[in-house]
Design goal:
Shape: globular
Strand order of the largest sheet: 2-1-3-4-5-11
Number of helices: 11
Distance between the termini: 50 Å
Order of helices and strands: HHHHEHHEEEEHEHEHEHEEHEE
Mean pLDDT: 86
Length: 329
């Protein structure tokens, strides 16, 4: 039978790290890649802790089957770890509760291959019309990271209003007024909505400094390139994801624009790369793995009899690094 020491040796980390990761110690600072590697090795070695076996025997949820529908493609998940972390959270909480994660499908349109299950978790900005007929009971559908509010469905969302307040509050406190926005498109995108609302209230919103596109680093580069070619150059930029911010930083470097002296940059997510780009990226930390776990928890409550819809909002935290200058508020 595999032991924690066996997993540690195969994964190239300490036994203490393996133990804390497998026990979901949220105080442990470890990269998503390391966490994923540990769980992969544990699965390959067939590791089953006694605590988990007992939990599966005791829970009334054992044997329930959940399907997962992801808005993003594998390539998009690779480029932006945000959705991969949500998926990892779903997998972890299902494992903890003895719920079977029966099927994972991807894509934005029809899914005739989706098999019936006891619950369905939908991640990303789907139009609910695309989901009609996929699952017979709307009470056991949980929407995760859905831009538009759907009060009749259980949901889990990031507190985007708080996130944008944190990012812009820091930039405004540093004296910036000409602040650009780069983000992904899509109806109801909340970061763009709150960006406009906050800066309009401050009297410094400029529609000419807004750019939208895809969520890739390549589009982050393109959008920053367009901003730099425009007539009015911003002194700061809020990027709606860290991959976009990374592309923007590269464009600024290629144009010889000093960061943060000539332009401050703030991202969103706090992916692992954010601390290692040059300069290290100030960003708003989201908690996507916690979102995935919360989605499974909402389904578990439904399986146990909860009737009223429930909505979970996960908070954020500003992480100040070198890309915007200044100290933490």
């Amino acid at each position: 039978m595999a032991t924690i020491k066996d997993i540690a040796r195969e994964a190239g980390v300490s036994a203490a790290t393996v133990s804390r990761v497998l026990n979901n110690d949220l105080s442990l600072s470890v990269s998503d890649d390391t966490r994923t590697r540990i769980f992969a090795v544990a699965g390959q070695l067939g590791y089953k802790p006694a605590r988990l076996k007992q939990m599966k025997r005791d829970t009334k949820l054992g044997g329930k089957t959940v399907s997962l529908l992801l808005w993003c493609s594998p390539e998009e998940e690779r480029d932006d770890p945000y959705y991969g972390s949500i998926r990892r959270g779903v997998e972890l909480r299902c494992e903890e509760l003895g719920i079977v994660l029966g099927q994972t499908l991807r894509g934005r349109t029809s899914h005739p291959a989706l098999r019936p299950g006891d619950g369905l978790i939908v991640v990303g900005g789907f139009d609910l019309q695309d989901l009609e007929g996929l699952h017979s009971d709307p009470n056991t559908i949980v929407l995760v990271d859905q831009y538009l509010e759907r009060p009749d469905y259980d949901s889990v969302r990031t507190h985007f209003r708080q996130a944008v307040n944190q990012a812009l509050g820091h930039l405004l406190a540093l004296g910036h007024r000409d602040i650009a926005f780069i983000g992904g498109g899509g109806e109801g995108e909340r970061r763009a909505h709150h960006f406009k609302r906050i800066l309009t209230e401050k009297g410094c919103y400029d529609a000419g400094l807004i750019r939208t596109g895809s969520w890739s680093s390549a589009d982050g580069y393109r959008m920053m390139d367009e901003l730099l070619a425009g007539g009015k150059r911003p002194t700061a930029c809020f990027a709606a994801s860290d991959p976009l911010a990374v592309g923007a930083l590269r464009a600024l470097h290629d144009h010889g624009v000093q960061v943060p002296e000539e332009m401050a940059v703030v991202g969103f997510d706090d992916i692992e790369m954010a601390a290692y780009v040059q300069p290290p990226l100030t960003t708003v930390r989201a908690y996507p793995e916690q979102m995935g776990k919360a989605a499974v928890q909402l389904l578990a409550e439904r399986f146990e009899g909860r009737e009223a819809p429930s909505h979970t909002i996960i908070g954020t935290k500003l992480i100040v690094r070198d890309s915007c200058g200044g100290a933490a508020d």
